[in-house]
Each structure stands twice: as structure tokens, then as C-alpha cells.
Amino acid sequence: MVVWARRDIGKAHPKLEVEVVDFERLGDRQVDAEDVYCCLGTTIKVAGSQEAFRRVDHDYPVALARAAAKGGAKRFLVVSALGADPRAKVFYSRAKGEMEAAVRAAGVRGTYIFRPSLLSGPRTEKRLGEKVGLVVGAVLGPLLGKYRPIHADLVAAAMITVAAQSPASAAFDSHEIRMAGGPAPVL
Predict the structure, then answer these.
(1) CATH code for the domain defined by 2-181
(2) Alpha carbon distances (Å) from 60 to 97, 103, 178
(3) Which of 79, 128, 139, 184 is the most buried (most CB within 10 A)?
């Protein structure tokens, strides 16, 4: 397995090859793989501006989808966000929706969009707003429906399941991700 990352991921395994890639130059590359998973994302606060956020959450996934199409990938699986809509008034949701449309247009036959709610799981940085959301989500749980926080491991499991089953190209909201991913990890 080859992972293209923006920086060292701090993981090692005999079957894992990590390549630190300049995502600004993805247009020059092609991905030679059947399945391409894109889990790129940041926050506006971490990125520093809406423009920098859009580069990571829109431009990089679109460039990766085009590189996957160029290499003949059969499946492109990408993490987006619940509420993504290219017509949204909220910048975050609009950027994610525009990314989804551009990724679909990139030309990979099997394109799968995963729209999780608030992601839970280990983080390297402290995010107070997310921490509050996760605590509320843990307390209210099932009452939140598709807005209930979802563990990143569950999203990953759903992506692997979908790639193995190869259904028609589709988008999966948080509640559908939960069903495809199997039993939920404990928050």
C-alpha cells in the first residue's frame, strides 16, 4: 500500500510505503492504482484563511481525482462533509459541495463520496469546539440522527467495504456510513 501524504505520518509497516508529496504539483502526477482513497482535510483556523482551506479541501482532492483518472483507477473514494452543497451559503459546505462535483467530473468510473458528521478519534491538535461537539454527541447520541459524531475508524471501514463491493457511484451520509462500516468504535 502506498500513501501519499503532505508530511510524515509517523507510521511504519512492512506493507506500507509513505511518500511525502507536494500536493501543489499533483497535476504533474498520475496514480497507478485500482483504488484511491482521499482523506485530505483541514480547518479554516488551521489553514489560516478560506483560500488556504479551499486549496486543501477542494483543490487537492480534485487534483488527486484527476491523477487517479489519468492512471486508470477503478475507484476513487473521498471524504467530504455532511451538508456539502455547491449552492450552500456557508463557505465550508459550499467548498465541499464544489469539490464533490469536480471530483465526479474527473473521470474515475467508480466515484464514492463519504459525508460524515463531526469526526471523532485521535487528534494531534486541540479543537475546543469539536471537543464540546463530541461531548454533546456522546450524551445525546441516537437523538442526533445523522448529525451524531462518527469515529474516523468507522468512516475508514465503510470506505474499504464500499471499495470491495463496488456499487454504482454514490454518496453516503453519516448514517449510511455507520451502516456500511460495521459496529461503531467507542468514542
Answers:
(1) 3.40.50.720
(2) 14, 10, 26
(3) 79
Tens digit of each residue's pLDDT (9 = 90 or more) over 48-97: 999 999 999 999 999 999 999 999 999 999 999 999 999 999 999 999 99
Q: Kindly give the pairing relationship between strand 170-173 and strand 110-115.
A: parallel
- pLDDT per residue over 20-46, tens digit each? 989 998 888 889 999 999 999 888 888
Hey, where are the domains in the chain?
Answer: 2-181
Whether the CB-CB separation of 113 and 172 falls below 8 Å is answered with yes
User: What gap in Å lies between CA 111 and CA 187, rounded to an integer?
Assistant: 29
